[in-house]
Amino acid sequence: MPASLHTDGGARGNPGPAGIGVVLANEHGEVIADIARGIGATTNNVAEYRALIAGLELALERGIAELDVYLDSKLVVSQVLGEWKIKDERLRALAAKAQILMGKFDAITIQHVRREQNAAADALANQGMDAAMVDVEDGWPEQESLLE
User: Fold this and answer.
1) CATH code (residue 82)
2) In a domain, 144, yes or no
3) How far is it, in rounded angstroms, from Cα 12 to Cα 103?
4) This prediction's pTM
5) Which structural domain range is residue 14 located in?
6) pLDDT in tens, the chain (148 residues)
């Protein structure tokens, strides 16, 4: 039975202070790792991709070979699966990185879920956005490299 990965990203404003949330659970549904991180000022879609990439990297670091991935971003799921064209160059680069990471698993699925089915990752993404907002008083924090 594969592990499961729930990811979410968001920004307060578009662009605005952004954060990512990731929940990695083993085959029994027990959380084995999570991430709540501010990523500077960026768009919702970039944050969604950054969350997916961080989650895939986390699963690979933990030695996961089979993974079921769940996102509440229909755009990211459809673009990564090649169902929708990617017009934005930044998103195209992020999608390519996600696809490379996905290719490193023995078996992987990715599917869109409703927001309420992604509540834990959403809560962590909000924590990340809160952290990104702390730096607003000093000006927008620098966005991390898209391809890190």
Assistant:
1) 3.30.420.10
2) no
3) 32
4) 0.91
5) 3-138
6) 799 999 999 999 889 999 999 999 999 999 999 999 999 999 999 999 999 999 999 999 999 999 999 999 999 999 999 999 999 999 999 999 999 999 999 999 999 999 999 999 999 999 999 988 875 555 554 544 444 4
